[in-house]
Amino acid sequence: MFENSNPWRMWIVSVLIAVMPLTFALPLKAKSVPAAILFLAGAWALLRDPETRRAYRRAVWVIGPATLAFVFWLANVAGHDVDMREFDVTSHILAFLLIAANFASPLRTAVLRVGFSLTAAVLGCICLEQHYIEGIDRVYGINNGLWGAIEFGMFMLVLSLIAVAQAMRRELRAGERLLHGFCAALGLYGAILTQSRGPMLAFLPAFATVVLIQSRRTGRWREGLLFIALGVGTALAAVATLHGEMLSRFAAVSEEVSTYSEQDATGAVRERLEMWRTARMAVEDHPLAGLGLNQFGDYARARIAEGKVNATVERYDHPHSEYLEWAVTGGIPGLALLVLLFGSALVFFGRYALHPDNAIAMPATAGLSTACLYALCALTDNVFYRAMPHSLYFFLTLGLAVYIGRQLSPHGQAGR
């Protein structure tokens, strides 16, 4: 029973969960320590606690597809005789399936929500430092490199959306609500400094969804409009400081799309279109079994050598669309699995986002916004091939689903 739980354990587990998103974004060797502790604690809870196992069963809409994805890609690697090192990032799903058990423990939820919001603020400050002190045009964080700007922007937007939802909770003290709002603004500003078009476009419907859900639950529509104004104002302020660079990047999309051809595939958008054409070729060649995990790059370079694909995409190992990635490397079954992974999470979290109990509605809103942003970003970018965004998605969606499953228990109330 939760009432008899060790309060020290409650605090320790809560703090460890709260710092996990920050560890994903930092290049520190010690960042594996919280994950290792939570992994062992989660495995123990699953073995010893029947209520934790029942929480998993209630969260099967999210737990099931993630488990299936782990098994599918393990079989894919074995079936295509791909080097097991290619399975490294994907194998982390298994770790997060066990770490999620900690969300069924009694938790200090205030520690979690403040920790997640502060992570958005810390990463936003890192972006400010990179842009205004180091003079980096497109900031990318400290755990990525230049090619990681897109994923880093998406990472911060996810945490900013969670902070927005917390800032709209009328039952929280005014000081804490202001803290969440400030952290959300910092995270959003930092994400804009990455100049990542896909995540910013995906953020708009996800942000509107969060605001509308919270406005509907609280009946405070004027406050919802205020948050929309705050979000738009923060975005405009950040765009204005970029001296037109962000606007130029958006303006270039239409021009590059209209002038793309198989002979002219130079430029970020044209290269994407060429990669998508190459991906379509791969799916047509291997519709059922796919090429094998992380094998798109080799396929593309082989087609370049045959003169069938423009050489501008030779440096890319992924097609810049998670949906095409799963279709190319896992065939049509792989694509169907990704749609199931996102779709089931959206259905599960969407079902509880308007629940009258905050202990259920708030984690559901956080899970819904996370799944929504990833599903939209996946249209034009790879969202799972780097450890940082891959870890954040499965950590949040699996953990929040199990937390909701525990709250749905007759005993309920996994923390305060």
TrEMBL record:
Presence of the UniProt keyword Membrane in the record: yes
Main location: membrane
Domain O-antigen ligase-related: 183-339
Keyword Transmembrane belongs to the record: yes
TM stretches of this protein: 7-26, 32-47, 59-77, 89-107, 114-133, 145-165, 177-192, 198-213, 225-244, 326-349, 361-385, 391-409
Entry keyword set: Ligase, Membrane, Transmembrane, Transmembrane helix
Pfam families: Wzy_C
Topology within the bilayer: Multi-pass membrane protein
Highest taxon of source: Bacteria
Record localization: Membrane
Alphabetized GO MF terms: ligase activity
Protein name (database record): O-antigen ligase family protein
Source species: Luteibacter jiangsuensis
